[in-house]
Amino acid sequence: MEYKMKIKLRTLKVDIFLFIVLFAGMFLILGINNDMAVTTLTEKISESNQQVLQFCVNRISVRLSQIEDYMFAYMVENPDMSVLRYDSENMAARVHVVDDLSGMYANYGDTSGFFIYMPGTDFLAMKTWKLWETLDTMELRRFIAEECESDEQMISWKTMNINGSEYLYHIRSYRNQRIGAIISLKTLQAWVDMDALKEFNDILLVDKTGKAVLGREFEQIPINNMTEYRYYYDEDGIKYIMISEPLSGTDLIYCGMLLNKNILGNLNRWQFGLIAMMIICGIVVMLGSVFLYYSIISPLNGLNQAISGFASGELDTKIKKHSIHYEFENINESFNYMTEQIKKLKIDIYEQKIERQSTQLKYLRLQTNPHFCLNALNVIYSLTLSKDIDMIKRLVLCLTRHSRYILKTSQSKVALQEETAYISNYLEIQKIRFPYHFEYVMEIEAGLEEILVPPFILQTFVENTFKYAVTDSEKLKIFIRVQKTCMNMLSIQIEDCGRGFSDKVLDSIRERKRITDENMEEHYGINNILERLDILYKEEYKAVFSNCAGQGARVVIEIPMEAGSEF
């Protein structure tokens, strides 16, 4: 097949180049400029407002820190507090402490109140002012007592809701004494310069759950990554830029909300114009996309489907000729030619593989037979010396059956009943050889007689039993069981009461290495069986070699259930 490259203007490269030249510049200029302008403007305004918000929030944090330091210094340095640490019932010290709480209003009148509590006693001094006229004093006292009972030092200010109003409270601990302050959240607003925050449309105070505890009630505020500005849409769909700053020493976050449309200002018209141009460009792109679909995407999809079908085994897959581009015509012709060649090559390789596997199976099967024949000849020779004619006749009859099975069994699988009859005949021959040294039990589950198994699959393991397990001192017991498993597999199990497999042999079997004895003589029987199973069943079989709990070897082979005649 000849391949000739022709120079044509109607090629894939030319079409793609024209498409890029036509639309790339327009999209890059409009899209990038619009995005960069809006992003840059938003970032600059957000950074400026972030600094203003940070400055105001820091003022609040500083004031809270001053209150914390004052409370701790009072508790540690005040002589009346020292007296109460050792004598909590001292009435003079108690009176002085209560008077001190009233005097704290002069320096910290922007708070809502202070309290002092000593756990384990009835002493709770409290002085409140501002917005507390309607409070349930007993309820507040219970709340303070419960909060002060803990020995853990309170790290940050916490929020509480009393009569529908939100407050901050903080408790400092020193030995067995507690001092605390309560501040209305509305008071925090008085600590900042609200004129500096006039650019914000709304100022919110948000708790750690994202709920606004002060300010306009927005829906749930996302509080992750609060150091970066983000866009936020309220329940009416109005777009805001949200700028956040955590309030140090508390679990609260200040959020400043800026209307997005106010940031852009006069740029809105320009942005709308750009959007209109982008829509026009989008229409052009859509038309171009339709052209690209029929000229490029559709042929590529056809090629991809053909490749997938061919990979899944559909060797007759062909691609129809594509008349738009020369490149696709060339690719399609090359693919069709390639599939024809691969199909022919695969058929040739498959036939060679079948022939090679058949030859290998015959070779492996023939390797099994000579061992038994040599042993049988030795038995006949021994019987001739003893002139036991009847036993010789019996042995020759068994050998005739044995040889007939070997000569007629040229197929890769036989019926289970033929294989078990063969192994029974083999065991009868061994009875002649070892009349008082072994016994066997063979259990075959009913209904499995026609299941196909590899020929001579049992002989190797039974023969190894006689070779390594028969002794003059102990009677050998052989157990053979064939049954169907719950996974619809045929299980063949052979056990004996001999000395079992050595660790070296088990390791060699698991690693599929050569099996050798103490004299470094190699044994092929087990490896021959495993190689035959590999050829016949690939990875669908299971072979487990182990030793019994007491003594003896155990072999369990599971193969797929196949019913039918020889094949």
From TrEMBL:
The residue ranges crossing the membrane are 12-32, 270-294
Swiss-Prot/TrEMBL keywords: Membrane, Phosphoprotein, Transferase, Transmembrane, Transmembrane helix
* Record localization: Membrane
**Could you tell me which species this protein originates from?**
Eisenbergiella tayi
- What single Pfam family name could you report for this chain, choosing any that match? His_kinase
Q: Could you give a GO molecular-function term held by this entry?
A: phosphorelay sensor kinase activity
List the InterPro entries hit by this protein, alphabetically: Bact_2-comp_sensor_kinase (IPR050640), HAMP_dom (IPR003660), HATPase_C_sf (IPR036890), Sig_transdc_His_kin_internal (IPR010559)
Q: Does the keyword Nuclease apply?
A: no
Give the protein name, as stated in the record.
HAMP domain-containing protein
UniProt keyword Ribonucleoprotein, yes or no:
no
PANTHER family, sorted:
SENSOR HISTIDINE KINASE YPDA
In which domain of life is the source organism classified? Bacteria
The entry's cellular-component GO terms read: membrane
HAMP domain mapped to chain residues: 294-347
